[in-house]
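Example for tutorial group B:
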């Protein structure tokens, strides 16, 4: 693992997963119990985007670590079901934060 004992990566994954809307709420959208535009889902998603950005700002990640933290797959799911659009400011900001973190990351 890239970071010392993988602690930073483990903390980041734990922090991100605690507020992950895919785990808790997206199933409700898929089952038709909740709309993609639901205010509660929107609030959880907005919070998660911010938490994800904070996690990416932690120091000590290698590029290997950051590949594991890449938000692109989750963002793709959120856009596919209509929770986020490609033009959403939080989505754009998170992608930019990831690119910045990756460019400053330690080489493996």
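The residue assignment follows.
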């Amino acid at each position: 693992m890239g970071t010392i004992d993988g602690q930073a990566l483990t903390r980041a994954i734990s922090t991100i997963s605690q507020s992950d809307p895919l785990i808790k709420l997206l199933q409700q959208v898929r089952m038709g119990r909740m709309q993609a535009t639901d205010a509660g889902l929107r609030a959880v998603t907005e919070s998660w985007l911010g938490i994800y950005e904070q996690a990416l700002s932690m120091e000590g990640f290698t590029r290997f670590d950051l590949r594991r933290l890449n938000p692109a797959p989750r963002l793709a799911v959120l856009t596919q079901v209509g929770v986020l659009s490609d033009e959403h400011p939080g989505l754009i900001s998170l992608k930019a934060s990831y690119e910045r973190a990756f460019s400053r990351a330690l080489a493996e």
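Helices lie at 7-18, 21-24, 26-30, 39-56, 63-68, 72-80, 89-104. Compare this with the pattern of hydrophobic and polar residues in the output above.
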